[in-house]
Specification:
It is a single chain. The chain folds into 3 domains: about 10-65, no CATH class; about 70-305, 3-Layer(aba) Sandwich (Aspartate Aminotransferase, domain 2), CATH 3.40.640.10; about 345-405, no CATH class. The strands form 2 sheets. Strands 1-7-6-5-4-2-3 form a 7-stranded mixed sheet, with helices on both faces. Strands 8-9-11-10 form a 4-stranded antiparallel sheet, with helices on one face. Helix 2 (about 55-60) packs across helix 9 and helix 4 (about 115-130) packs across helix 5 (about 150-160). The protein is built from 11 helices and 11 strands. The chain is an alpha/beta fold.
Length: about 400
């Protein structure tokens, strides 16, 4: 690993406090032009003794704003100390986890996978409009039916159509034939330019798409496309458990990637990561943001620097090998669960090297689903699947108790 190193608790604490001290202090400096401050001091005491040993909580109270994209160059100088920590997170994820090269990408800490996916689609919509002179009606999103709901949300917000490709009920894979049917439907409606979303761990099934099914088809048909990887769930597990995968920047067809830190990494909610190859962010530059140094290219604008700090602290606490051990622990538990389901002849779907198990609901009683808080595929219609996500708190004791109560229905 080039950038991802394991650090001691003391090293982590020193680095974060050093970064916070490099920021311009609302308390010590005469800052009169910014509509922000520390967290309200009548409610949050900045002099609490425990804060001397609590870098993340100190960052929360100091309230650094990481508006902008710091890999592009100029950013607001008020928080340049903690912005450096965000840039370090981007380096670790883009280079060491997602196989990017130095200076080949831009990225920032987003509010989550939904924002990051919309950011990608926003970029490519504008790319096709500016570079291909396309009409908006000629651009469409292509994804599997298992893709995250942020895809229809993006289509609605950006006023472009979404075409969903059917998957095999049991393997959750798309085929050349189903893709061909979907693309022909889009073309019949005048679509010429395609924003492809390939999944690295779908929300319900943990299924992983083969991006070459898309790219081989589009190349054969000589169609114009951009490929985005939604790794919101799988991004902090699948590249570790399956390092030879091709849903990363080593694949020249991949233009951008979403990854969530508030899922597998257990960072605070509201912590996603968006990464894109160089020279793509410019398509969403908001030139009207003249009062911001470097202007802004992000969907949400102001962002909490504390979330970037939390992500950096978690990554540096484990280091690459500690994280590998943590992932293998979860995969062992997932394998164990699947073996128990096999013994009972219970039908389920599980993507290899992913810690989600979707069980066919016909084998589950309502009482069992409610007791163990299984998540259904749908709350509004006839449900076919319910899932278990094997997270650190989902121990073998819990899984054994669940499988002992699980009885195959007649």
């Amino acid at each position: 690993m080039k950038y991802w190193k394991k650090l001691s608790n003391e090293q982590i604490k020193e680095r974060v406090f050093f970064a916070l001290n490099k920021n311009i202090s609302f308390i010590e400096k005469k800052i009169t032009g910014i509509p922000a401050s520390t967290l309200d001091q009548q409610v949050f005491n900045i002099n609490e003794p425990f804060l001397k040993n609590a870098p993340y909580m100190t960052a929360m109270i100091n309230n650094p704003n990481h508006i902008g994209c710091h890999t592009l160059g100029d950013s607001e100088a008020f928080c340049n100390g903690t912005q450096e920590i965000e840039k370090e997170v981007i380096k670790i994820v883009a280079n060491d986890i997602l196989m990017g090269g130095d200076k080949e990408y831009d990225g920032y800490i987003a509010s989550g996978g939904t924002e990051a996916n919309i950011q990608a689609i926003w970029i490519y919509r504008n790319y096709f409009k500016y570079e291909k002179n396309s009409d908006q009606s000629e651009i469409a999103i292509i994804s599997s039916v298992d893709a995250h709901y942020s895809m229809p949300k993006a289509g609605n917000l950006l006023n472009i159509d979404l075409y969903s490709v059917e998957v095999d009920e049991n393997t959750r894979k798309i085929s050349f034939e189903t893709l061909d049917k979907t693309i022909k439907e889009a073309q019949s409606n005048g679509v010429k330019y395609f924003i492809i979303i390939a999944n690295m761990g779908t929300t319900m099934f943990g299924s992983v798409d083969n991006p070459e099914v898309y790219t081989d088809y589009f190349k054969e048909k000589k169609l114009d496309y951009k490929l985005h990887i939604d790794a919101a769930f799988g991004g902090f597990i699948y590249p570790i458990s399956n390092p030879k995968n091709i849903l990363n920047f080593s694949n020249p067809d991949v233009s951008s990637i979403t990854i969530d830190a508030h899922k597998m990494l257990d960072a605070p909610y509201g912590t996603g990561i968006f990464l894109a190859r160089k020279n793509l962010m410019k398509y969403v530059m908001t030139k009207e943001a003249q009062y911001i140094n470097g202007m802004d290219i992000t969907l949400v604008g102001s962002r909490s620097g504390a979330n970037a700090i939390a992500t950096w602290m978690i990554l540096q606490n484990y280091g690459p090998y500690g994280w590998l051990e943590e992932i293998n622990k979860l995969l062992f538990r997932t394998d164990w669960l699947c073996e128990k389901l096999d013994e009972k002849n219970i039908e389920y779907f599980r993507e290899d090297k992913i810690n989600i198990v979707a069980i066919k609901s016909k084998y589950l009683s309502t009482e069992l689903e409610e007791e163990y808080y299984l998540v259904p595929e749908t709350h509004t219609g006839k449900n076919k699947w319910s899932k278990i996500v094997v997270m650190p708190h989902v121990t073998l004791d819990i899984l054994e108790e669940f499988t002992l109560k699980l009885r195959k229905k007649n």
